[in-house]
Structure formats: C-alpha cells, structure tokens
Design goal:
Number of helices: 5
Largest sheet: 4 strands, antiparallel
Strand content: 15-25%
CATH topology of the domain at 23-106: Defensin A-like
Structural class: alpha+beta
Distance between the termini: 58 Å
Low-confidence stretches: none
Number of strands: 7
Helix content: 25-40%
CATH class of the domain at 23-106: Alpha Beta
Mean pLDDT: 85
Radius of gyration: 20 Å
C-alpha cells in the first residue's frame, strides 16, 4: 500500500507546474546614482518610483529622513541629496523601503497599492488580494 501511495504522489508532483524563483527584484530598474561635489544625484528616481507604484514625494520623504540629509526632487525626475552618500547605502535603504512599503508580506509580489484612510495606511496586493496595515512614514 505504501508503494502505491508513493507512486501516486510522484505522479502528482510530476504533473504540477514547476515553481520559478521570484524575479521581483530583477524587474526593478537599477538606480543610477552619481556624486557631484558634495551632492548625490539619483538620475532615474522617478522611473524607479513609477515601477514600484509609489509617489516620488513619499519615497523622497523616506529616503531623506533615513539619510538625515536635505534634498529635493527635480522636475526632470532626478533626486538631488545634499551630502555625499555611497550607492551601497542608498540601495540598502531603497531595498528596506521596498520590503516595508511595497512588497506583499504574503506572496512577495511587488504589485501592490497603498490606500490611506485618515491615519491608517494599508497596502493591498494586486496579485493575491492580501491587505496589510503599515506604520506611517
């Protein structure tokens, strides 16, 4: 009886589609970071924010708060930060932002949207439908 069960189980697993590893971060554009004197410029900041479906002002607020540095968002989609910061630090902070405010904790999809209701911010996943409450920025 155990052998028959094992054969059926093997047959079932052979018919299941192969689960592909998540390529969520591969789909994100790479941040184009450059330093000019005492400033750091992220050239494709608005494109990056569009891909993660977040308002560039919100991402700017998070990034500048974490860096404890002044900066501003330009009309051409660039973020200019006063101070010299390495690309490693900025990429680490952006990864942290994506994990906290973009990536669905249930299915790990990046296809999420934020909804604000008074002081409560919720993140709804477009892939699995999960709703998660987030801490405010």
């Amino acid at each position: 009886m155990d052998k028959n069960y094992q054969q059926l189980l093997d047959r079932l697993y052979s018919k299941l589609p192969q689960k592909e590893p998540s390529s969520a971060y591969q789909e994100l554009p790479k941040l184009n970071i450059m330093s000019a004197g005492g400033t750091t410029i992220i050239r494709n900041f608005e494109e990056y924010c569009d891909r993660i479906r977040r308002d560039p002002k919100m991402v700017t607020k998070y990034l500048l708060k974490e860096l404890a540095a002044p900066g501003n968002l330009q009309d051409n989609g660039q973020l200019i930060i006063q101070g010299k910061f390495s690309s490693t630090i900025i990429n680490t902070l952006m990864d942290r932002f994506v994990k906290s405010y973009v990536q669905c904790p249930t299915c790990r999809s990046l296809d999420t949207v934020l909804k604000a209701d008074k002081k409560v911010i919720t993140m709804s996943c477009l892939a699995c439908g999960a709703v998660t409450t987030l801490k405010p920025l």
